[in-house]
TrEMBL record:
Protein name: Desiccation-related protein PCC13-62
Lineage: Eukaryota, Viridiplantae, Streptophyta, Embryophyta, Tracheophyta
Keyword annotations from UniProtKB, A to Z: Signal
Keyword Signal appears in the UniProt entry: yes
Signal peptide per UniProt: 1-20
InterPro entries: Pigment-catalase-like (IPR052965)
Amino acid sequence: MYKTCLLLVLVIGVISRIDATPVNSHRYPSCSGNISATDVDLVQLAMNVEFTEAEFFLKASTGKGLDAFNATLAKGGPAPVGARKANLDPITKRIIEEFGYQEIGHLRAIADMTGGIRRPLLNLTRENFAMFMDRAVGRRSNPRFDPYANTRNYLLASYYIPYVGLTGYVGAIPYLVYFNFKRLVAGLLGVESGQDGVIRTLLYERQDETVEEYGGVTVAELTNEISILRNKLGMCGIKDEGLCVPPWLGAENRTTSNILAADAYSLSYDRTPQEILRVMYGTGDEHRPGGFWPCGANGRIARMFLDKRYYGNCGAC
Ligand SMILES: *[C@@H]1O[C@H](CO)[C@@H](O)[C@H](O)[C@H]1NC(C)=O
Ligand SMILES: *[C@@H]1O[C@H](CO)[C@@H](O)[C@H](O)[C@H]1NC(C)=O
Ligand SMILES: *[C@@H]1O[C@H](CO)[C@@H](O)[C@H](O)[C@H]1NC(C)=O
Ligand SMILES: *[C@@H]1O[C@H](CO)[C@@H](O)[C@H](O)[C@H]1NC(C)=O
């Protein structure tokens, strides 16, 4: 295991250089979270991530999506596309099922306090995950990467989502004004980071397993590549780290294991609303929807950034 971590350290050194290439070429990206937004706007932006997690976790573990449990939370948003029951081992299934129910609670908490938002169109198809993974690794999977095929693939796909929610909550809290919103987001952050920690621990145990869809790339390497992709899409430096890091990114510069991603003080990284949108759209541009949210995210913040030119085929949603 230690050997894998060391090898990866060399690889990361090379890749992080390529990292600086901007994806978003036509605008200088903002890395300031100080945007004109109310507490309601900020927690409603988070609902987009919570809807995505709810569907992904519930469908994968129970075979049923959010609407089967609470049909009113989506507020008439379009049916999510592509999620399905995953072929999970019994323990992972139980864990993911619990996470799914937790997301329903999170959505209810935000909806009860703010009235909620319409669920955006969610693209949870195998093709969409394969597209993100292919981009992370830099080549096409063969056979195609299927997040629902087995526990390992599902955990790798899960690596993509709660962590984005976590960084968004860390980024939002300093800008919240009211006590009840701070309390809400602190509570959401606690559980979200717990989910991320569990997913990363389960992956850490499998760090040396190879992913045949990518010709024997290990789980640890793949997590690094996903993190590098997210850093690239977010365009605001290192906010994301894989399971094995060079010592200068490890806790107190003393370790290469990296179950929890954090900064030099071992504090969680934060992301702004724009970074969240860039990463989840997969376009590196908060104005240009795609990826998990092909018609754009909902709520005032996301809609404020959305460029109507890219709205194209999404009249229906
Ligand atoms: C955010 O922007 C407002 C208006 O420009 C300014 O008054 C405030 O001090 C800024 N807050 C932070 C934390 O930068
Ligand atoms: C669905 O969530 C809403 C918002 O919290 C709540 O008012 C409603 O009772 C829930 N419905 C069910 C069936 O749990
Ligand atoms: C979902 O993503 C895949 C891969 O990018 C794409 O082929 C498909 O058209 C998308 N589906 C929707 C409904 O946006
Ligand atoms: C770890 O190394 C980095 C870069 O070399 C340095 O900036 C940081 O202060 C070091 N942290 C500790 C706790 O020594």
